[in-house]
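The records we work with from here on pair a chain with its fold. These numbers are not coordinates but entries in a learned vocabulary of local backbone shapes. To see the layout at work, look at the sequence and tokens printed below:
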Amino acid sequence: MLRAFLKGDEGALEIREDLTGLKPDQVHWIDLHHPSQEERQVAEQFLGVPLPSHADMQEIEPSSRLYRDEEVLRVTATILSQADSEKPLLSPITFMLTQDCLITIRYSDPLPFRTFQEHASQHPAICSSGVTAFAGLMEAIIDRLADILEMVGNGVEQLSHEIFSPPGKRPRSRDFEEVLVRVGRFGDLNSRVRESLLSISRFMIFLDSVMDAMDDDHIKARHRTIKQDLHSLTDHSDFLAGKVTFLLDATLGMISIEQNAIIKIFSVAAVVFLPPTLIASIYGMNFHDMPELTWPIGYPVAIFLMVVSAVLPYFYFKRRGWL
């Protein structure tokens, strides 16, 4: 899909799905979402510059992601999408900045792109040039990452209350599997957010020299704010990563404690019933010369010995606090 954003009549933002009859200096933003080969060729002919292929966008070395080609800046960032689903997706998105236009090439649909497009249609000034569109899009992406980190933080806090709740309200061993799944999901989501933040930070540093050369103080101020937000969110992500690791260790510790308690009960039960079993085994041998076989009170004596031999260890363990 190809969508072109340009200033229409009376200052309104006009959105087109073709570039017929337009000039490069009229268009402020061209968004290529899963572009077909024909749409790629149309965009290349319109801009007069080649577009990176999907394979080129997936390269991870900085020299392939951050470079300047003639008058065009090309940066590729890893952006998080589908964060609310069970399978969050990290996908590369290329941003190309010319003198007048922003070009984005993407094969995913992050929420900030939709929200920014809706906001731009109501407030055309935020998409009045390629540079302003780029700054606004970056702000929308960072706002979304901040929301995701806030969601992770709330989820981790809820998990902490569940794991460290009083024994009567604490999850049982069969429920800890669900707790581990939730801890793992929050940890994975946080790591993906952090990867996206680091990717954006790299190309924002790369753009420093370009922004410093600009005369627009307002854009440079927004650029500084974006970098500050990135730094703060990265620190917060590191904090959440440590907390997730702590909760993972705590959950495994709780599972171990509960399993040890169960094993302790079985061990104590085995020791309590060991003396009665020994007495029953002795008097169950039925040798001919066992004097107790002829005792009239032999049976009740044996029962009494078995009961006493079971009760005494039980009270001993109880007194020592092992039960």
Notes: The chain has two domains: 2-258, 259-320. Residues 217-282 form the longest helix (66 residues).
